[in-house]
Amino acid sequence: GNSVTQMEGPVTLSEEAFLTINCTYTATGYPSLFWYVQYPGEGLQLLLKATKADDKGSNKGFEATYRKETTSFHLEKGSVQVSDSAVYFCALSPARGDKIIFGKGTRLHILP
Amino acid sequence: GAVVSQHPSRVICKSGTSVKIECRSLDFQATTMFWYRQFPKQSLMLMATSNEGSKATYEQGVEKDKFLINHASLTLSTLTVTSAHPEDSSFYICSARDGQGPDTQYFGPGTRLTVL
């Protein structure tokens, strides 16, 4: 079946530190991959996505590369800010327009 | 960007009553809407997929008679929690897919349901 596994949180970093949140997936076929972010008290927002192997999604300084050989889609940011504190969800969609399957989420705390 | 609203944002009800939650796409037509449930500090669990004008498709383990979904128009889907019990207390989130746009799902802000 289809599933997403991401690193357990919470993750606590100092401002300007390098961030990696690991995500691996299991899927049949060629899924689309996503990272969603949920800021405190707000709804889910799409952060970035990639629809095929070797694609790199990027937004707001965050990046993730679709690695089919390792079935991974790790989220990275070179220098985090306090405002990046949120819960990050890795997700996949088995096919275009299909439902989205989420990982459990990783809570990120950035200390000033 | 595309906006999805939910109403109400919070609702408290007594056990045994029914609660209706609305999900609207404000500036696009949503041929498909999805309903999720999120438990505290956990991920979103897909409950059902709703296509305009047809019956919803429920995920395994979700009681369709308890969670009634209606998608009567291209901009509105409703979730009714019937005979609510405390274990139904949760955060309910809808998303809508823009059928004409870049095929992205847009999420509503969620509805916090508390059943006393």
Note the quaternary state here.
heterodimer
Question: Helical amount among residues of chain B, as a percent range?
Answer: under 10%
**Secondary structure category of chain A:** mainly beta
Integer-rounded radius of gyration of chain A: 13 Å
Distance between the termini of chain A: 41 Å
Strand content of chain B: over 45%
Short description:
Chain A is mainly beta and 112 residues long. Chain A has strands at residues 3-6, 11-14, 19-21, 23-26, 32-38, 44-50, 56-59, 62-65, 75-77, 86-93, 101-102, 106-111. The mean pLDDT of chain A is 93.
Please tell me about this protein's structure.
- Chain A is an all-beta fold and 112 residues long.
- Chain A is 0% helix and 50% strand.
- In chain A, a hairpin with a 5-residue loop joins β5 and β6 (44-50).
- The mean pLDDT of chain A is 93.
- With 116 residues, chain B is an all-beta fold.
- In chain B, the strands form two sheets. In chain B, strands 2, 4, 5, 6, 9, 10 and 11 form a seven-stranded mixed sheet that branches.
- In chain B, β9 (90-98) and β10 (105-107) form a beta hairpin.
Question: Which helices and strands appear, and what pairs or packs with what?
Answer:
The complex is a heterodimer of chains A (112) and B (116).
Chain A: E1 3-6, E2 11-14, E3 19-21, E4 23-26, E5 32-38, E6 44-50, E7 56-59, E8 62-65, E9 75-77, E10 86-93, E11 101-102, E12 106-111
Parallel strand pairs in A: 2-12
Antiparallel strand pairs in A: 1-4, 3-9, 5-6, 5-10, 7-8, 8-9, 10-11, 10-12
Chain B: E1 4-7, E2 10-13, E3 19-25, E4 30-38, E5 44-51, E6 57-58, E7 67-73, E8 76-81, E9 90-98, E10 105-107, E11 111-115
Parallel strand pairs in B: 2-11
Antiparallel strand pairs in B: 1-3, 3-8, 4-5, 4-9, 5-6, 7-8, 9-10, 9-11
Which properties best describe this structure?
heterodimer, A: 112 residues, mainly beta, six-stranded mixed β-sheet, B: 116 residues, seven-stranded mixed β-sheet, 11 strands
